[in-house]
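Hi V.,

You were right to ask for the full record rather than a summary. Here it is.
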Amino acid sequence: MSVQEYLEKHMLSRKIEEAVNAAVRAKAPDPVLFIAGHMRRAAPAVITKVRARQILDGHGLPAVEVELHTNKAVHRASAAGAGAPEGTAAGAAGDAERRKNLARSVADAVRVINDKVSEALVGLDPQQQTQIDQAIMDLDKARHKAELGANAMLAVSIAACKAGAAEKEVPLYKHIADHVGKSATTLPVPAITVINGGRHAGNAIPIQEIMILPVGAKNFEEAMQMGSETYHHLKDIIVEKYGSESCNIGNDGGFAPNIFRQILFLISPSGMWEPPYGSQNTLSFLFSISESLDLVIAAIERAGYNGRIKLAINVAATDFCAGKKYDLEFKSAKKSGQNFKTGDDMIEMYSQLCSEYPLVSIEQPFDKDDWEHSKKFTTLELCQVVGDDLLMSDPERIKRAVSEYTCNALVLKANQIGTVTEAIEVVKQAKDAHWGVMVSHRSGDTEDSFIADLAVGAAAGQIKAGAPCRGECLTKYNQLLRIEDELGSESVYAGENWRTTSTS
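Predicted structure:
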């Protein structure tokens, strides 16, 4: 084939002329670079290949990473949370089995992505997120995405979303906002983990997280400064009060002071882990929660942010529900029997905490199937009541919760649902009910920062990404700092409106 025949076959002469004319009109200082970019944009992007591999997440456990290839670039995404839910295995043997199951699950997901998913997506336009996600969903009709795995589906969906944004030449958060149907974007208030307990730490504190919300900051940058300073002051206070050995950190990077052990040491030189029996033990675990909140309040005051930072807790009560009661001693080998609480007892405890502290949000205060007490507590209107296990980002469970008023906020863990499109739909569902939305990481997440862009693009108003100390947490917070800097004077921080941002 001659040069002339080649030019005619691909209509290159006309395309080159158009590019040159565009460069002239734009008065491009570097015409070669301009023309190259113009020609590149003239060719529509299509997906050419999807490849997956196993990587390690923040806990050193197997996770899925995906590289989605187009005819123009390669886009990478990853998602944690494959396999068995956290806390389902007990003891060293159980943990070892869980790791093996997790590795097998990820290996299976990698094979399916490299074969079935890649074949299904080749040739599709990366800008067509809904079409891509439907193609992925069509490959896994099982309930809860059991065949392919929601985390594997999500990694592919996120990679496609990044490719779509690149093809449109817009930031990822703007691309997401377009899918949501929202022109404006909002920087979320970070729910920063400062103390860990529950199954996320080896101390006696029964609840999983204590978080701080810098609602009084003027922008996201100041919010992170306030959060980071409070976090480091908290460390100093814990060292002063309990000693340097109490500054271990939990799964989400929050400090894990063994408050109860320190209290017992004051009672008995042996420093026994087991709680003493007797009347004083009845209130001991409530005391450990209150003492933890007192530490955080002291850190806020020392940092000079009193009144500008609110508190939130993630109870994760499903982890210690036994039958119809809640075992606040669930991490203790010997139980006094005095800390099995009814749902009504738990409501009384939460009500007391809300009256004594600037506590504005409680996540998963009851078991995932305890709709009765969740509704009873929510109707008190004492704080934001966030559904995690109760909802599981499931549209049907959200619909029921809206109807019965069993909570008034959604914690969105995208890998529970599977694709970007489905995640956007449940955000809309929650916002239509005038709920709060907290976009959340997973404990031991990967370093992928997608949820930062999702929180901004979907105008969630809240994001939970752990403490300001672990790499997989900081990638999300740092991405939000970049987004705010990029938006400049157009950036809007949710601040005091953290629960009322709208997707419309």
